[in-house]
Amino acid sequence: MKEQPPPYSTSPPPAGFNPPPPQHSGHPAPSHTVIVTTTATPISLGPDPARMTCPYCHANIVTSVESEANSKTHLFAILLCLFM
């Protein structure tokens, strides 16, 4: 069975221990102000791969589009041809 450590209130701090200074409540005041501005560029994607920077994680990525025709696609095309 493991021995429990002594309570903090009864043991003196070890030699050379300097407690951290007291902190103020809330966040400390900033030493300087940083203003970040961005310009919004429209993202136009199409069927061809495009190189772009992810707006969320800022990683360089290559987009891709995968499509597959199925029976619903063919049925919709037939209905359009018949009624339009």
UniProtKB/TrEMBL annotation:
Signal peptide: none annotated. Coiled coil: none annotated. Residues 31-84 form the LITAF domain. Residues 1-42 are annotated as: Disordered. It comes from the Eukaryota. Pfam families: zf-LITAF-like. This is LITAF domain-containing protein. PROSITE patterns: LITAF (PS51837). Residues 1-23 have a biased composition (Pro residues).
